[in-house]
Sequence to fold (829 residues):
Amino acid sequence: MSDQPRNLPHLYLSGNGKSEDYTSPSRGGGDAPTPPARNRENHANSLLQALDQAIDGARQKLESRNTEIAVGTRGFYLEFQIHSDDINAFESLENKTKKIELVAVRKSSTQEDIVEATVFVPEKASDHFLSKVEQYRTEDTKFEKPKNEKLVSRIESVQLGTVRSLFTDKDDLFPQSTQNIWWEVWLRKGQNEAFKMITEKLHVETKQYRISFPEREVMLALANLESMSIIVDNSDVIAELRIAKDSPSFFLDDMLSIEQEEWSRDLEKYLSPPQDDSVAVCLLDRGVTQIHPLIQLALDTADMHTCNPIWGINDNGGHGTKMAGIALYEDLFKSLQTSYPVQLSHRLESVKILPPNGQNAPELYGAITEQAISLPEIQSPNRLRVFCMAVTSEEDFPNLGSPSSWSASIDKLCFGDDEFRRLIIISGGNIRQDILPNDYPDINDITAIENPCQAWNALVVGAYTQKVNITHPSYVGWKPVAPAGDLSPRSRTSVSWSDRWPIRPDVVFEGGNLASDGINPAIYMDDLCVLTTDHRPNFRLFGRMGDTSSATAIASYMAARIMSQYPNFHPETVRALIVHSAEWTPAMQTLFKSVDYRKTKIRPFLRRYGYGVPDLNRALKSANNDLTLIVEDNLKPFHLDNGNIKTRYMNFHKLPWPIEKLEEFGEVDVELKITLSYFIEPNPGERGWGSCHRYASHGLRFEVKRQLENDNDFKRRINSAARDEEENSTAPASTRRDSDNNWFLGQKNRNHGSIHSDIWHGSAADLAQRGAIAIYPVGGWWKENKTLERWDKTVRYSLIVSIRVPSVEVDIYTPVENLIRVPISILVS
Fold:
């Protein structure tokens, strides 16, 4: 590449999009899955018999309810075993008018193509499913098909629901003994008071923390299986049950045995404290040792908080202070060698979210995280901040990548209220077991990223390493486990996750390496770790850190630097700039190239490295031959039309484009990089995977005008793209193919989660005609769930566009800057 200085501010466009009416085409039913072949009479009679038996059992239970403890309206649960060939089929089990609610869906542990769907049925609607099956048996549609065939033919069996029917965690976690355990209880909306009433009557202990979502509230309860069964039998409050997992754990490494107080004092002479209105990195951790001489000038005692006064605010274990040193200085080793004044660009805040020693009982860490975030915001409500949390929990999920109460809480916190958004950066978690050199990197690909990294809106950080030099004389012959530029040995991945979940990690930062003698498990080594501050400054000032904790602290440092440079940017934009600046290292690219390059083959590598290693300089500045345009805009994705929720608008961006310069370079290779970032409102719960119970409130997608397209052709293609985006699109495969193969990742790989990034490679002449981008909505629960009335919401997004001409000396920045100074024509038909 022809490197040119990065000394130019990024170019900013506000509200550049032109909103136009937009209709997402109907999915139609062309090639919908064929219902299972059934003997209509026999199948109906079998289901009617099973329903009669289940409803009789339900009535007996309702009559035997203990009136002294029973709460809520009278109703019962039915558990359906239903074929999963059509993911929307079981959603028709729900009937909002009759208050019949689909509460839990889980895959069968014994039959691969069966899901077990549990439905709450009010007593007044007891005959609803009997009527459905009877209609299937005796009535035909106008197409001469059995009525309700799509649903009824797929039902294999039905029975009265139990506690087990509401259990959506892994089967082997279901309690078998009478011992009390902590349950994570997912309540139907508005039922928390009723739940507290019945638990108080049964002397069942509950935690004070509670998390609220649009359709669910989550609490913790200490109960045995018998007590939980009594609650289910005497109330209608519970939607799902899970096991409350162990509290989060950290990797607390041994400290460097060095005391170099003179280095610290030398650095102190050059430091200037951050300004009063500086951005803050808020560490959600185990506290920070504020008296450390390299920390105290950036951390005021008024900015130190705790979720429990008994824990105090100081760091007893060392992890928080190590995080603080990296979040403040990034590279303390380099800082200690400085010989010129250093103005600290940002300050620190600390919230202690874990006890000083050991692990506390299971908690609703989503609620604790909410409380922790509120403390500094109350203390300094006008301060810009980035939240940093290197806390994870090794929690098994029946569906890898599915949201937890904790991850959904983080999404809720990022999304915020009244346009108040937050940037939260979290670590992907580390492999806890011993690692042999031959295990790497296969062990990383099979070890799933940890809770709460299922969050869509947070920036999730993994670890890579450039540290491979072993100089210590005691380790002659030892070798680093990871090659330079590759994944850090303990970093987890989302390779094992379903493709429907976000790419995790988003990016990777330095996490150090492990060293091996070739025989024994690999170990940490000073040469291969990141230097930082120690929590016992009277004993030693410096310590070492690695893995995804150090990577997350570095990511937070970068975010704070971006916020300091561009204080008016939205959190979505800061997240986008970090991802947008990332590139895969040569070592990573070697692995990309080692496979037969097809876009489907690249997915495991994307889920290992995310979008690569971010570059702070690229995130902050443009160059003459590498310009970045930043657009912050909004659109209204849906509206109510004649009682139905439909798509409302899409935005067209006619960008200031260096057409003449690009045409001048003809066939010279260029790059176009686009990153789209937005936050979704979460609606968690294991109720299925179809449209009605989507997790995300909405989705946005981008498309770029192609070389030979006119404006109308471009708009028609967007409608096609929206149709194909629907989860159950039945369009022929040929129409769903990404026909623009110049994109490195392509739609199938980039369209996961709430941040989408891709690189287009081609000629300058081709790129000259691609100066228009469309942002359009795709479905989410705002569109599918009318009862929650979110159809009138406006959403905002950040669009980052970069043009890079890597091989020649060229100034494409100035022509674009000049165009921004004059009005830009909006793309119209």
In short: Confidence is low (pLDDT under 50) at residues 248-259, 727-738, 824-829.
